[in-house]
Design brief:
With about 160 residues, this protein is of the alpha+beta class. The chain has one domain: tt1808, chain A (Alpha-Beta Complex). It has helices spanning about 25-40, 85-100, and strands at about 10, 15-20, 45-50, 55-60, 75-80, 105-110, 115-125, 125-135, 140, 150. A six-stranded mixed beta sheet has the order 3-4-5-6-7-8, sandwiched between helices. The longest helix is centred in the first third of the chain and has 20 residues, at about 25-40. The chain starts with 7 loop residues before the first strand and ends in a 7-residue tail after the last strand.
Length: about 160
């Protein structure tokens, strides 16, 4: 039996790892969360601060009940904020998984590159539409159903 300490763990490509986000990581997720939360509330969708893998997940409230499984037909947006210790996994492996999972929108906040990228229209070979990477400070349009401009200037290191 394997024991892991910590509040969160994730399994990526069969490897179990403890997740201990840094304060900068959590701050970046908070900047995005604060900008989308009013629109999420208007549309009647709950957000989550931390789901199994994504840093932020938005699903329609009516579909967020039951077994709690995160399914593609329940998901509207996944946000991943890169971790210093595992940025390549956040950039490559998780994006590949979100595409296969058919997450319609995937926002990558890359703290080490200082950029944001919005992936959309998942296909068999990956996301077919990529908006970015854009440097922090760029205003990035989140398409419908969000229909809002995300100000990324708050993502820059303090």
């Amino acid at each position: 039996m394997q024991h892991i300490r910590g509040d969160r763990v994730q399994i990526i490509e069969g490897i179990i790892e403890a997740v201990s986000p840094t304060w900068d990581h959590e701050r970046a997720a908070r900047v995005v969360r604060r900008q989308i939360e009013d629109r999420v509330d208007e549309l009647g969708w709950p957000g989550s601060s931390n789901w199994y893998v994504p840093d932020i997940t938005v699903v329609p409230e009516a579909l967020a009940k039951g077994d709690g499984a995160l399914l593609h037909d329940r998901t509207l947006l996944v946000v991943e904020v890169t971790s210093e210790s595992d940025a390549e996994t956040d950039r490559v492996v998780k994006r590949r998984r979100y595409t296969a999972y058919q997450a319609p929108l995937h926002l990558l906040v890359d703290r080490s590159e200082g950029s944001v990228t919005l992936f959309s229209e998942p296909g068999h070979l990956g996301y077919t539409r990529v908006d970015g990477p854009h440097p922090f400070g760029t205003v990035l349009r989140l398409p419908d159903p969000f229909g809002l401009d995300l100000d990324t200037s708050g993502l820059s290191p303090a």
